[in-house]
Prior knowledge:
Two copies of one chain form a homodimer. Chain A is an alpha+beta fold.
Amino acid sequence: MIYQLYYWPGIQGRGEFVRLALEEAGAAYQDIALLPEEEGGGVTAMMNILEGAGVEHPPFAPPFLQAGRRLIGQTANILLFLGPRLGLVPRDAAGRLWTHQLQLTLADFVLEIHDTHHPIGGGLYYEEQKAEARRRSGDFVAYRLPRFLGYFERVWERNAQSEIWLAGKQLSYADLSMAQVIAGLRYAFPRASKRALRGCPGLRALHDEVFARPRIKRYFASGRRLAFNNEGIFRHYPELDA
Amino acid sequence: MIYQLYYWPGIQGRGEFVRLALEEAGAAYQDIALLPEEEGGGVTAMMNILEGAGVEHPPFAPPFLQAGRRLIGQTANILLFLGPRLGLVPRDAAGRLWTHQLQLTLADFVLEIHDTHHPIGGGLYYEEQKAEARRRSGDFVAYRLPRFLGYFERVWERNAQSEIWLAGKQLSYADLSMAQVIAGLRYAFPRASKRALRGCPGLRALHDEVFARPRIKRYFASGRRLAFNNEGIFRHYPELDA
Lengths: 242, 242
């Protein structure tokens, strides 16, 4: 099975949570929107699915994954599907549901991180909502950031089956996403995240474990991993990092 | 199996998406936070789980569901779990994944609806973020509301298996949630939602079908269904309904 991933070029965004799972598992996949149009790639190929009248199960937005005849949207749903196939989730039903629950809470966290720079609307530039972004970021840094990180640190502490991972005995896609969120936070909010992560030794270690995985290191070294930038979810605006 | 649902008293909120599924299926459940403290209920019982040091899989926030020994958080995850047990999801794996994908997109929609009145922070009063709420609602009404409703109308149209429901042949939990969102929008944004729903005959009909179901009618008649109010997700502030 060669998976086809569709996501916006130029940013890590939500596509990166799926990429990290595929990379860690050594799965074969194509990043369709990054391929040339002549090879059936590009944003055109992505828009053909998003807007195609004949698509039975249209996704609302990227990322989405084509797996054989299946077309699957919503980041957490893609990972729910891939988890067992890539060996990135516990084997028992309760463990799978719990991992998915963590992923959904990470999705909530990611959206709040995004909205720090876009509190009014995704269709407006940051510059058009700077004052509101400042206010929202103030609230985020003071209350939401420590609340979310504290929660995940607690989850990490209470996992009796592992001293490294969030859920179950082994690495799961939720660990990959957690590490990615920490990396993103350190890029976007270096000061605030340093402060908030001080009380989270478990998450800091988890981050390091993930990014030391051989296949993840190979992915980074390949040049295919994009750098964080101010077009994505995690953006560094010093004025928001209080 | 008697399910135990935990959610904030006084509002429909996200708990209502779970309640509608339980009610439609005629499932036995207790709404724990609405029971007297003397009977082991109340907000205290809910906080004991949210903040209890011995809880292995702590939820981040209500609603959460106790099902025997399982404790499940995140609205969409609860419905993912309940769907097959309550007969509210297609039988095939692809149909289940698609239904869940729709539920996750509804969750995104619901969060954007919530943030129209709370664009800066959930810990602040509406009155403290009125100016920002007005701007965000303007964007929501102009772009996001028609975009989400248009998307779900398209999904409805493309479901070749039913002329009533969103996914598969029969009623699913996504239909119940969709109807609830329409009801909430009509309460919160009577003018804007009327306009946006004009081009969505499928969704309007789906809404009417859901609220005409015998068990849903019985639930409404029981007095247990709370009215919408300005403490919940869907709030009616005329100044935001442009």
